[in-house]
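Chain A, query sequence.
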Amino acid sequence: MNKDTLPLVPRARVVLITPELAQEILRRNDRNRTPDSGVVNMITQQISNGDFQLTHQGIALDGTIEDGKLLDGQHRLLAIIRAEVPVEMFVFEDVPPETFTVLDTGKRRSGGDVLTLAGEKDTMLLAATIRHVHLLRTMPSGAWAGSKSRITNNELMEIFRENPDGFRDAVRTGRNLGNCTTMIPTAGATAYFLTREAAPETPTGEWLDGLYSGANLGPVDPRLAFIKAMQQMRGQRSQRRTNTRAHVGIYIKAWNAWVANKPVKTLRLQKGEPVPKPVRIRFSE
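Chain A, predicted structure.
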């Protein structure tokens, strides 16, 4: 293997990080998340009190300390600036940029943080949508709680990369459904993604127009039944996790009935009833 093609090996050394150096490194911080002021305050207090200790948790750069972009450690750098005290810490140089999905900082990265670093928008809803799609694929009748329901940031990004445009479209639609029908946006985005995944060739303009406006819908139109179901569920005092599953289930029931041209007056998902699978064939015009 040519030495020019060898992968970079991260190097670690202890460096005295002054407030000036911290400021310079942060100027190259174009990939990190919005800092958490509470975490910065906590570390600042530790530094000011002399309690901050040299550990493996330092800063990581994708190049050298002179020119690399910051991958990890912005909370610690901000705290040094705020405390106006130089601190010795490990500096890891030449860290591969793709490792940002598993890096830890003073605060654990959420799925939304990882998606933000990847340049996505509305990332909290996007992350929640990806997680719920995963849950409905892997444990549709499960409790959606505990260790089995968790998803790592790497898994989240792998699922997102399977259909990034589909997830982005689902998030936009989920927001609109939330605004127009009081549906939980996560449920709307998840349900829309699953129906589009099941029937990608099925036109959805007429379907969504009816849900958004509610205009000119007959008394047995599944879209009207869905709108009424959302209105009835609004304000019900139950766990949001349960409501999300119910909203997804009712949406898919309405979709399946609409696709089959089946009249429906009322819709609900009974307690313990599994979320139905979306049908794959559009009814004939």
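DSSP finds eleven helices and four strands in the chain. The chain has a mean pLDDT of 86.
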